[in-house]
Amino acid sequence: MIDLSSFQPNMRIAVIGASGGIGHALTAHLAANEHSAQIFALSRSGDAQAHPKVTPLRFDFTQEQSLMDAQDTMKAAGEFDLIIIATGLLHGQDLAPEKNIRAMSHNGFAQNFLINTAGPALCAKYMLPLLRHDRKTVFAALSARVGSISDNRLGGWYAYRASKAALNMVIKTLAIEHGRRLKQAAIIGLHPGTVDTKLSKPFQNNVPDGKLFTPEQSAGYLLGVINRVSAEQSGQVFDWDGKTVPA
User: Fold this and answer.
1) CA 122, CA 63: separation in Å to the nearest integer?
2) What CATH number is associated with residue 112?
């Protein structure tokens, strides 16, 4: 069982993007954990595990009214200990990571920033006020190592890299602002590694042996980081194994 002993018992948790590969695995781990009491599983489809602890909630973070409605529903349940944003966009219809400057487009940047930056930022606007003030809490969003400016040695993937770098700046800025009133909160980014999901499927050929994780593996590693992180580390981005991702 995943260790969540740094939190108080009877945790109230939200997983945003709960129908995706990592989000689904996070929800399953959390539902099985003795420290958790209630888990809101938010997604556009509203799909979630059938479990007594899990409350499915249909939700679209590209629509601000949907964010306000979700906040109202969650606020009625009480204060939260852990909120995880497990969403992300890398490729899709008419969208692929750019191999070079010729492949850049307004559409690519608009879609990447909508899902990878603006969506998590607006989630923070409505979800951070739901965190408890009297104990350790964590607000975490899935980021990516390729969002590191100093670690960029290969180039390419312009829109995705830029949107994740922007998300990392949002996380840092949120940590500064909310550190003034949420003294025990850690607001962090998490790099899940390369996970065997639809997002990474076209890009798995060059992954080293042992570095392609199942969603269950990655989710377990990320929850381990969440358990170990402290308010003093708020604003940072962490790899799946707890190492700091450079800015």
Assistant:
1) 9
2) 3.40.50.720
DSSP 52: T
Gap between the Cα atoms of 76 and 74, Å rounded: 5
H helices present in the chain, as ranges = 21-31, 64-77, 106-113, 119-127, 158-178, 215-228
Q: Is residue 181 part of a domain?
A: yes
Does the residue 1 lie in any domain? no
87 with 142: CB under 8 angstroms?
yes
Q: What's the token pair of residue 53? A: 């602890």
Domain that holds residue 75: 11-239
Task: Judge contact between 59 and 43, C-beta under 8 A.
Answer: yes
Tokens describing residue 12 = 């109230």
The residue whose two tokens read 């629509």 is 63
pLDDT for 93 equals: 84
Token readout for 143 is: 């980021």
Cα separation, 221 vs 232, whole angstroms: 20
Q: Evaluate whether residue 84 is within a structural domain.
A: yes
- Count of beta carbons in the 10 Å neighbourhood of residue 177: 12
User: What are the tokens at 118?
Assistant: 């603006």
Q: State how far the Cα of 219 lies from the Cα of 130, in Å rounded to an integer.
A: 23
| Amino acid at residue number 66 | S
Q: How many domains does the chain have?
A: 1
Which whole-number Å values give the CA distances from 149 to 46, 90, 165, 187, 194, in the listed order? 35, 18, 7, 20, 19
> Is residue 6 a part of any domain in this protein?
no
pLDDT digits (tens, 9 = 90+) for 135-174: 999 999 999 999 999 999 999 999 999 999 999 999 999 9
pLDDT of residue 178: 94
Model confidence pLDDT, tens digit, residues 19-33: 999 999 999 999 999
